[in-house]
Amino acid sequence: MLLGQEIYKVMDQKQIEVQQVGLNKMTDFAIHTLMELAKAFNYHRGNIPVLDPKTDYLSLQKMKATLDSYTQFAEDQDNVTERTDAALQIVMDTIGYDAKTDDPKIPNGILTAFMSIGLPVELTLSEYQEKWLLDEELHRMVLEALNAPSGSALTAHQEGLLDLYNTEVVHSFFEDLLTTAAKEQGFPSPVFQKVQRQKVVELDGDIFTEINFIALQALLEKELGDEPLLQPQQAERNRQVKQIEELRISDVRDSYFAQVEKEYDKPNTKNKMYRGVNLFLKLVGDYRLSELTSVQAYTFIEEQLEVQPNLSQRTIVDRNWQVSSLLTYCVQKGYIKQNPFREINFKRKGKQRHHWQGFTPLELDRIFTYDWEPQERLLLCIKATTGLRLSEVGCLTWECFNVDDDGIRTFTVLKAKNIGSKRIVPLHPTLVLPPQGEGRLFDYPIDGNGLCSTSAGAAINPILAKLIPDPLKSAHSFRRTLKNMFRDAGISKEINDIYTGHGQGDVASTSYGGASIKTRYEAISRLKFPWLKQF
What we know:
Helix content is 53%, strand content 4%. By secondary structure, the chain is mainly alpha-helical.
């Protein structure tokens, strides 16, 4: 079993490493494309910002806006106004003109271009812009003089780079970069327009857009006369850094589960918390965290009842808490301001929890006159006289057994439900135990949560149900029976709770306001068990 887990662990690690190699390759491709595109258009006269989160955020933001304008310039061939605006932006970027710091007169770069084509130079920039909008030939001449693109006269190199720029791989990197830089430098998180962009494929180490790859296939098919045997790999780079406004439940689920692994010990508790979140995703949906309100909490309740009309209210409350815990984690991380799943009204939601009833003396006599197997009879005798939970009894070991200097026999219950249940239980003087040995008293299989309530319950509950056919009575009823006996004997509620594990527990306190081992022993010794037949 352990070997199998180690093998899967190694395989998972290898898969993570392979994915990381792919991510690194796509990131390198994105950086290379951005740098080459900026060089091809002589962006900012070659002063290209370093693509790093520590680089001035506004410089990175301006670079993306400019590169986006190049794409717009190439796409808007039929719209003169948009094309001229984009072309003018390219000219401004090509010569590195900054309206905030440079002379408002015609920049030197444009002045040189004017002179090279014989145009007058006694114009202001605004007059030049006005002329620009009215004269397409002027665009071509000036842009050619500046060695910048005009209209559809982009070089093949520029067009190819723009194709690569307009892919999900490149934009996912650039958006991650800007989001991280904004966060580290104290700027508001940028918002990006959702645009359907091209995919890329990898073929023998080369990267193609899907469109170019299809064209390559068609070309080879035409030249070879047969269908080309090309087997590309789908290559992608998903966003690694999401804007807080875009985060969905599924985006934070894994990191939340990792925290659950650290904070909780019992596998059963962990599994319940996982199931609650996953059930919400299945029944309600993968909402953005910013969209969640109490409405989704009530929708979750209704969807559960639609699937299971007889679902108990206790289960509904527990599952709401499981999702609410994830949202509390999101509040702590700063993803949302408040938890909308708190203060939910569960009134009339699901079936009310039933309370186990205690056995009557007549029923107890019927139970103990039954011909039980020795192990089950010992289990019932200990359970009836101590009020221990089924799994607490079934997991007892002889190492938990002790006899003090006063001759008081005790069990120290460690595998308890919670801290309040970890306690020392004095045994009734009439309880007969087998000769002391080593290891466990019982051989009921223990599950992955360290409990044996399922296996022990399977051994006694079906018989109890036949002897006492009452849906509100089961093995758990022995605890209620003992609590009733303490109450009827005039034992204080404090001692009653301490003995049956409803107090703070001996781990939390050793005094209990005078509830010593001797006090507990005296309390249990006052009870009579005339129906108890131990052999």
